[in-house]
Amino acid sequence: MAGYLFSHLVLLWFLTFGPYTTNLAFPSKVGLKSTDLSDKDLSFVPLDLDVRLLSLDLSNNFIRQLHTLVLPLLKQLDLSNNQLDFISEGAFENLTQLELLNLSRNELNNNLGNNSKALQSLSNLKNLDISGNGLSNEAVELYLKNKSSLLQLKMTGNALTAISYKLFKESKGLQIISIDGNLISDIERGTFEPLSQLETLTLARNNLAHICDFKLHQIKHLNLSRNSVEYFISREDHKWYRLEILDLSFNKLLYFPIIPKYNHLKYLYLQNNMIGALQSEATMVSEVNSLYDEIVHGKPARENHLHSNWRTMQLIHIDLSYNHFTSFPIETLFLLSSLESLNFSYNCLKNINWNIRRFSGTARQLFFVSLKDLNLQSNGLQYISPRFLEALWQIERLNLQDNLVQPCAFNDHRKNPQSPQQVKPNSSCVSFGQLRTLKHLNLRANYIKVLQEKAFLGTSLVSLDLAQNVHMVMHEEALESLQATLESLIISEINMSSSHLSLPCMVALNQLNISNNRLHELPNSLSCSSVRNIDLRNNTFVTFNYSQIHNLSTHLKTMYISGNSFNCCDNQWLTILNDTKIDVPDISETECVTDVTRLRLMEYLKTPFSYCSARTKTQEVIVGETIVILIFIGAVLTMLIVFSKKCCTQRSLLV
Ligand SMILES: *[C@@H]1O[C@H](CO)[C@@H](O)[C@H](O)[C@H]1NC(C)=O
Ligand SMILES: *[C@@H]1O[C@H](CO)[C@@H](O)[C@H](O)[C@H]1NC(C)=O
Ligand SMILES: *[C@@H]1O[C@H](CO)[C@@H](O)[C@H](O)[C@H]1NC(C)=O
Ligand SMILES: *[C@@H]1O[C@H](CO)[C@@H](O)[C@H](O)[C@H]1NC(C)=O
Ligand SMILES: *[C@@H]1O[C@H](CO)[C@@H](O)[C@H](O)[C@H]1NC(C)=O
Ligand SMILES: *[C@@H]1O[C@H](CO)[C@@H](O)[C@H](O)[C@H]1NC(C)=O
Ligand SMILES: *[C@@H]1O[C@H](CO)[C@@H](O)[C@H](O)[C@H]1NC(C)=O
Ligand SMILES: *[C@@H]1O[C@H](CO)[C@@H](O)[C@H](O)[C@H]1NC(C)=O
Ligand SMILES: *[C@@H]1O[C@H](CO)[C@@H](O)[C@H](O)[C@H]1NC(C)=O
Ligand SMILES: *[C@@H]1O[C@H](CO)[C@@H](O)[C@H](O)[C@H]1NC(C)=O
Ligand SMILES: *[C@@H]1O[C@H](CO)[C@@H](O)[C@H](O)[C@H]1NC(C)=O
Ligand SMILES: *[C@@H]1O[C@H](CO)[C@@H](O)[C@H](O)[C@H]1NC(C)=O
Q1: Do 143 and 168 touch, CB atoms closer than 8 A?
Q2: Is the pLDDT confidence value at 235 over 90?
């Protein structure tokens, strides 16, 4: 008993202290590269650390004070997430090789005298993290002294309210600075300009309101997300800016930003602002230009700075989702000749008209020459001008989910291409046939009533999502023309019955989602396809046609079947699934019914005999009984007839 208890105590001790104690007590002869002492409930730094350590992790402990460490080879020290509030003056003096110091999530806004002295002695530091320490402007200024070799600095989640040009005076080599999650509302001129190596600056989640004069030529990646920025303006100069990524999302922008003319901007994030709130595109453009001139020259607007700068931009992606556009800013966006993807979801377009300024009386045709991916989800869109569709020269992916778009039948467009009736916002449908390059179309949840014949003729769609168009009626030939190209088709949540689902022979189809309908049989045309994944959940299937499943099984990899009421005893198809090793991920949730009960398919499969043989027996008994009863009734009837005939004969004799 005692021995048993003892061995358990030893085991417990080993589990708690084992690796850590062995490291300290028996340092290996090869020399310790690193020691992980994180999460060890330490309240002080162990005294007998191996002097050859290169890396030491003391994170997630309860260390409050730090005294002299003598680890002359140490390159990395992680003290994050402790309760450190006192670092004695000389604590770091002997860490001459230290390159990375992580002090995040401590309480270093105390004892500034000793702490800052200690930090100032680390003159070779390359990477410093002092996030989450409640640091004031003053504290940070002290902590950053004597840091000429610092390359990366993280100060997320402190209490900075302003940044002065003195802050980085002694750390001019910085390449990456993160000061997100502070309370900064003011940045003094000349703060970042002298940091010639600065590439990435994150000022997200602060209180910045206006960017009046952006001048940071050196920066590649600027993050101003989640401030209160109302406008962003850069004064025109003839220098090149290295800017590639600009994040202005979650601000209060009313206008597009005026970006420096000579830039390398590729990604512009403007989601969750108020751009477009000023009715028309023309109003917005003229307002932002007057703002520019007021700020820069103190004079009224004369030039279209916005457009002349946008024209030269090599932007690839712009996110304008969650803004306030009621009309599509065609004349601004078409200037972006490299634009490949545009997210315009969650605005309030309702219609896309071809409202562009006319030159010499004719409506111009403009083209989005590079646009491949356009997201127009959730805009209440009902009408899209054919001219707009024509402008989508290279479009491959179009997301129209959650709008009110009714696709036209193929003929609508061709019969009368020039007909003025086509521009009827209320009644008109959208003819996708114009989009010859289109590959992926999402028409989910558009209240589509009828999917007309050959609605997509002219496109070469690879994937089509028609889900959630409840009660949509599909014309027999709706998908005609997509036979050779369509690979993925989603027609779930339509409440469609088998008699209303007819699919053409689609040779390329390999994914089919027909879940959440009222289907009880698979369309015969599936035999043409080599479907690999099929989702049949939540329908009214009772069984599957054996030969059909057999045909499908040659290609089928995955099949979802739960939410149907299968007949347990009509289960030949199951043996095919079993034999061919088709994956049925939801088999354990699948139920089946017998005459007497409803049970899990798995349950049934454990003892199939007991359920269905019972049923057969009962059936036989019932059949037997019925026969006996029928014979009995027959006999009685015969007797009655014979008897009544006798009576009749007798009666007739009487007459
Ligand atoms: C510092 O440690 C925290 C975890 O406590 C981590 O999230 C952060 O990335 C580390 N900083 C650096 C510069 O490695
Ligand atoms: C620690 O550094 C101080 C000052 O640089 C030096 O005098 C002292 O000898 C060093 N101690 C060790 C153990 O290296
Ligand atoms: C450092 O801390 C010690 C002990 O608390 C104190 O005596 C000393 O004045 C402090 N030094 C500075 C520069 O604040
Ligand atoms: C600044 O770093 C140098 C070494 O580069 C060192 O000699 C000096 O003492 C440090 N200054 C302070 C105030 O610690
Ligand atoms: C900008 O910062 C926010 C908040 O920290 C972050 O969510 C976002 O991903 C960053 N943007 C970019 C483009 O890195
Ligand atoms: C478009 O924006 C929405 C909402 O911000 C987002 O959910 C979606 O991922 C974005 N899509 C693309 C392709 O960027
Ligand atoms: C479209 O319908 C709305 C009301 O449903 C009506 O106010 C508007 O005048 C109609 N527009 C056209 C061009 O028919
Ligand atoms: C099929 O569509 C439903 C929504 O109707 C969805 O929940 C399910 O995940 C889809 N199936 C597959 C395999 O993606
Ligand atoms: C689906 O159709 C059936 C029969 O027409 C109807 O009873 C049911 O309410 C419909 N379900 C939905 C969600 O519309
Ligand atoms: C099937 O229907 C159930 C109940 O209505 C629902 O919880 C489940 O998400 C549906 N499954 C799919 C794949 O949509
Ligand atoms: C099963 O499907 C085949 C074609 O795959 C068809 O010829 C046969 O009639 C179907 N059987 C039943 C009972 O529907
Ligand atoms: C499924 O196949 C395994 C052998 O691969 C067999 O043991 C099992 O009985 C089969 N189950 C059914 C329901 O056919």
Answers
A1: no
A2: no
